[in-house]
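Table S2 (text version). Query chain:
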Amino acid sequence: MMAYEYDLVILGGGTAGYVAAIKAGQAGLKTAIVEKEKLGGTCLHKGCIPTKSMLKSAEVANTMKHADLFGIGAVEPEIDMAKIQGRKQDVVDQMYSGVKHLMKKHKVDVFNGHGRILGPSIFSPMAGTVAVEHPEDEEAESEILINQNVMIATGSHPRPLPFLPFDGNLVLSSDDMMTLDHVPSRMAIIGGGVIGLEFASILTDLGSHVTVVEAGSQIIPHEDKDVAEALKKALEAQGVIFKTGIALDEDRIRKDEDTITLQFDEGEETFDKALIAIGRAPNTEDLGLGNTKIQLDGGYISTDAYYQTKDANIYAVGDVIGNLQLAHVATKEAVTAVEHMTEQKPYTLDYNAVPRCIYTHPEVASIGMTEKALKEKGMAYSVHKVPFAAVGKAVIAHGDKGFGKILVEPETKDILGLALIGPGATELINEAALAKFLDASALEIGSAIHAHPSIGEVLMELGLDAEGIGIHV
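Corresponding structure-token output:
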């Protein structure tokens, strides 16, 4: 057994973990990461980055199929899943080598293994010492990491349906989609949230017949109702079939050797594969939490606004605390936690100022509150909508069915919420995020000069329209 001493030991080398390590290195802390798979975590290897690479390939296929919209002869693309996966892997490998380089640059030690928190022991009077085990290698000796602070950034995993466990063949998780070697002819996607819809968009563009089954009455249930309806209509026009208000149970499902059959009210349908995309569950198993004062709430680790747990020397950030399971939220939480442990008095994170993106075709992006949330809180607001058809560059991009929607406080014209559906939405939302961060009013967004022609003009028009002085609406 080898013992090492650190200022900070981070459990998990995903987005939150490696960003925390960089921040800690900048602050002069001697830092270690314990990661049992690869640095970069879900986001780099199984989530954000690889899915966006696949979406780009799917977008190219879609453009080829509909090239006649742009005055060019349409072509039926030849889909080669192995090449799409190969390009995805090239992108991931490039980013992965960048993360490893950053760890060296900031002198972060990386232990490959499973980290478990120990209770008070000969090493420390308080809980927090980390034992690194190597379940794959029985010969390897375990390491003991004695530290001043621990950060738990262990992330999450795809949540299975209790009556339909993942099998990697017929019943797939989003992780399994990263190694899919062909486009299934008929695909069922269980769950109409962000992950399910992004894969629905990818697979449809690549030529699959996709049916999305959602238990609720609205897809993307936490987003704006108008946007959800517009996205559903757009995906339906591309061939996606939606079954909403359908709560599946074991009686509605039959698995055969190479097909899966779902029973709907109007009859049964058979699919080649089913993707289960009903959310993600926190990775809290086998971390030694029982040796600490850490409390769980619905399976997630409870923390204060600076991500401290009930043990003041142990912090937790990212998916494992379950605020908003987004990579950019995890990194911000990680930075805030490191600033707090180094007594830099950080701002606490305003979750209403976090952009939320859905990389479907068309794209959706939003920030702040929805109408439903504002009504539930009894807050006054006014609604203003601008069609992308009012903006030349959006029409050129064949995005004229999209729109922007802003919710403002009637007296102050403060921005309470903003949503976009259409080309470039996931880039444009960053301007709204900056506006929220700087506490800009709708008029200030509207008064800033926007380049013409640009799709971003829709934000200028929204800001002006909130004051009743829109130019092109």
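Notes on Table S2: The mean pLDDT is 96. Residues 30 and 279 are 35 Å apart (CA to CA).
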